[in-house]
Structure formats: structure tokens, C-alpha cells
Amino acid sequence: MKIRPLIALLSLTLFCCAQTTSNSMNKIRYVALGDSYTICEGASTDESWPVIMTKHLNEKKIPVELIANPSRTGWTTQDLIDNELDIFDASKADFATLCIGVNDYFQGIDSNTFHKNLIYILDHVQNKLSNTTKFILITIPDYSVTPTGGKYSHTRDVPKGLSEFNSIILNEAKKRNLKTVDLFEVSKGMKDDATLIAKDGLHPSAKEYSLWEKLILPVAESLLKK
After folding, report:
1. Cα–chain-centroid distance for residue 105?
2. CA-to-CA distance for 39 and 61, rounded, in angstroms?
3. How far apart are CA 165 and CA 173, in angstroms?
4. Are 160 and 133 in contact (CB under 8 A)?
5. Which residues pair with 31 in a beta bridge?
6. Residue 116 maps to which CATH number?
7. What is the pLDDT of residue 155?
8. CA 120 to the chain's CA centroid
């Protein structure tokens, strides 16, 4: 079930009120955009990489507040456009991460449509950021290596298809001078280690998400220190 923008905006308002502190105005406002790989399906909220990264950045004396994580399992680029961008706008974010596209591929959405939607998202987010480079793009992990991932290939070469989508992400990042983090290669480790996979046999476990955070953290640290 999709959360409509009005309900999502109300959720953001309540979240922001709950998170407000006396020094929150001095913190970098962070919004995590994406799908199951950002909401971290298969792990608890406290085990999600955006929450862990926010904690680690603060430990490194980089004051960051996770204002919102409107990501949802199953959402495509179009779902993100329809449901997450209003939340992003209301957040007045200074910094954002984006990991999207796996469900576009999964649902058979062609690469041209994915590219068009990605450009729309990037243009929108960068237009709202005071510093357009405070935005990290994250590549799509390879779900085909998980125990149940192969069931959803529909006879397609999943690694090849995801690599095509990831090339689009990386090329757009290069055009825009944006930092990237590649999760595609590290995600292949799920093939040989059951502890890196959630109980559903498809999504990563908290342990795998923590590995992703270790890759994303130094990129965010370098970017936000500037």
C-alpha cells in the first residue's frame, strides 16, 4: 500500500517535532531517499545504514540529523517521485542520499524510462539543495545472488540488467559532479554467506547493511567536512 503525499507530509511533521532539539538548527539536515535498500527491509530501524551513518558522523564531530527516511519496500523511481519528493521538499534538507532502481528493473521498466525518471529526481533534489553536490548516489545491489533472488529473474540476466541501470546512475553522477558509492560488488558477498541475508531470503541482513554503511560513511564524511 502506498502512502499518499498528504499523509506522508503529516508523518514528516510529527517526526520532525519528535526529533527537534535545542541545537537542531545547527545540524546538517539529512534525508535518505530510496526503496527497501534504504529503509533497510530485513533489519530494525536502529540497524538501518542511514541511522548508523548519522550516529557515526556525529561521533566524528559532523553534526547531522536524519530528518526523514521516506523510502519504502517495492518503490520504483516513479513511486519516489510521487511519494518522497514532497517530503524531501518539506524537510529543507542540506544533504541527501539516493539508492533507487532495483524495483524498476524488477518490474520490467525499461532503462530509458528509468533514466528519464532518474534525471527528474536528480534535477528536483539538486534544485532544492543549497549546495548541489551534497548528494550521494548509491548503485543498485545484486539481488540475484540471494537464495530467492533467482526466482525473480524472469529468464533475464539480472547482473547484466542491473549493471546497465548502474551505468546510468554512475554516468549521471559524473555529469553532475556527484559522489557515488558502489554496492553492486560488495552485495555479491551475500552469495556465500547466509549471515548477510535476511530471513526472507531476498533482502540483506543487518550485518550486510552495516557493511554498506562502512562504504558510504567515508564518502559522506569527506563530503560534509567541506
Report:
1. 16
2. 25
3. 13
4. no
5. 68, 96
6. 3.40.50.1110
7. 78
8. 16
